[in-house]
Amino acid sequence: MSVASLRRAARESVSGLPREFWWLWTSSLINRIGAFVATFLALYLTVERGYSASYAGLVAALHGLGGVVSSLGAGVMTDRLGRRPTLMIAQVSTALSVALLGFMTDPMAIAAVAFLVGMASNASRPAVQAMMADIVKPEDRVRAFSLNYWAINLGFAISSAAAGFIAEYSYLAGFLGEAALTLACAVLVFVKVAETRPVRDTSAGAKAEPEVGLGTVLRDRRFMGVVGLSFLIALIFMQAHVGLPVAMGEAGFSAADFGLAIAVNGVLIVVLQIPVTRFIEHRDPRKLLIISAVVAGYGFGLTAFAGSIAVYALTVCVWTLAEIVNAPTQTGLVVRLSPVHGRGRYQGMYTLSWSAAALVAPLMSGFVIDRLGADWLWGVCAVLGTGAALGYWLLMRSLPEEESEGEALVPSPSSPVASNPVASKEVSA
To answer: For residues 347 and 125, is the Cβ–Cβ distance under 8 A?
Structure first.
C-alpha cells in the first residue's frame, strides 16, 4: 500500500465526526495516559508499603466493588442530571480521591479510599458513552467507539511505560500526576464540551416516549441478555491480567516474560484497531459478535498448549483480534438497544457487567488454578466463548433494523445544545 493510500485511509477513518467527539476523545487519551493507580496499586501496596499479597488483593477487590456500586448510580445521574455534570463530578471526585490515596498510610484508610477511587473513576463511563451516542450519527458510531477505544489503549501503553519510571522515583508522584491529569480532563470537558442530553419533544402530536427507569432496563429481556453475554466476554478478557500472569508464573516464566507477552496486546490494538474497524464498520454486528466470542474463547483456550514466550504471544495475537472486533461492536449494540432518554441507565447497566466481571474473574481464576490447574482455566474460557457465541446467535436472530433518529427530539432553548448546530442535529440515537 502506498503512502498516499495510507493517508487516504487514515483521513477517511477520522473524517465526518463532530468536533465535540474529538474533545471527548482527547479527554479519554489524557485520562488513560494518567492511569497509575489501576496499573501499580498492587505493587505500591506490596513493595512500597510492605503489605501482604492478600491485603493487596482485598484492596483491589474493594476498588472493583466501588465500580460496581457506582455503575447504576452514574447511569441514573447521566439521564437525570445530564451527561456533562455527571462527567465533571466523576472526574473531579476521581482526582481528589486519587490524590488522597497517595497520602494514606493506615490499612483501613487505604482500603476505604481505594473503594472511593473505584466508585469515582467508574462513574464517568456511562456519561462518556451516552454523550458519544448523542453527538455521533448512527452510521458512524462503531467507528467512533473504535477510535475512542484506540485512544484508551494508546494512552494506557504510554502510561504503563512512563509510570514504571515514575514509580522508581516516587509512587506519590504517580498518584498526584494521575490526579492532575484527571483534573485537566474535567477542565477540558467544562470548557469545550456542551451538554448533549436529548430533550423530550412535548409539542402537540409528538410521539411520546415512555419514562425510563432502572425497572425498565431490567425488564428489557433482550438488553439484559446482552448484559449477561457481556459479563461472560468480560470474564474471558479479564484473564489476561489475572489468570495469565499467575499461570505463566507457575510455569516458571518471569514477570518480564509476562510483560513481553502481554505487550503484544497493546501493540496490536494501536496498530490494527483503526484498519480493522474500517473493515467491519458496516458489517452485520450479529456475525461480528458471534465470531469474536468464539475467537476470544478459543484464543485463551490455546494458552493451554503454550510452552514458550513465542507461543504465549501468538495466543495473545488471537484473542486480541477478538477484542478489537468485539469492543466497538458491542458498545454500538448497547446504544442501538437503548432508548434515547434512557441511555445513561442502559450504559450504566452495561458498565456494571464489566465491573462485576472484574470482581468475579480473579476469584474464578484463583479457584480453578488452585483446584484443577491452569489448563482447566483455559478450557473454561473456551466453553464461555462458545456459550457467549450461542447466546448472541439466539438473542440477535430477530434484531430489528437500526432506525433513523432525531425526529422526536428538539433542542431545549436553555440548553447549550440549542446553539450547537452539530449537537442539535445529531443528538438522536
So the answer is: yes
The sign of the torsion formed by the CA atoms of 24, 40, 359, 49 equals negative
d(CA 50, CA 315): 34
| Superfamily name with CATH number, domain 18-201+402-429 | MFS general substrate transporter like domains (1.20.1250.20)
**CB distance 319 to 238 below 8 Å:** no
CA distance 302 to 158: 29
Distances (CA, A) of 337 to 32, 128, 159, 322: 28, 17, 34, 22
Residues 6+ apart with CB under 8 A from 43: 167
**Spatial distance between the Cα atoms of 251 and 265, rounded to a whole number of angstroms:** 21
Residues 6+ apart with CB under 8 A from 173: 166
Q: Estimate the crossing angle of helix 309-337 against helix 285-301, to 10 degrees.
A: 150
Q: Which residues of 187-203 are buried (b: 16+ CB within 10 A; e: fewer)?
A: ebbeeebbbbbbbeeee
Q: Do domains 18-201+402-429 and 213-398 have the same CATH topology?
A: yes
Ranking 197-206, 256-265, 401-410 by mean pLDDT, the lowest is 401-410
Return the H-helix or E-strand segment holding 428.
none
- Domain 213-398: CATH superfamily, name plus number: MFS general substrate transporter like domains (1.20.1250.20)
- At which residue does the C-alpha cell 456500586 appear? 69
Domain chopping of the chain, boundaries: 18-201+402-429, 213-398
- Cell 495469565 identifies what position? 244
pLDDT per position as a tens digit, 333-383: 888 888 877 788 888 888 888 888 888 888 888 888 888 888 999 999 999
Rounded Cα gap, residues 17 and 21, in angstroms: 7
Query: DSSP secondary-structure letter at 207?
Result: P
Helix 19-33 to helix 171-192 angle (10° resolution) is: 170
pTM, two decimal places: 0.73
Write out pLDDT tens, residues 312-323.
999 999 999 999
Residue 214 has pLDDT above 60, yes or no: yes
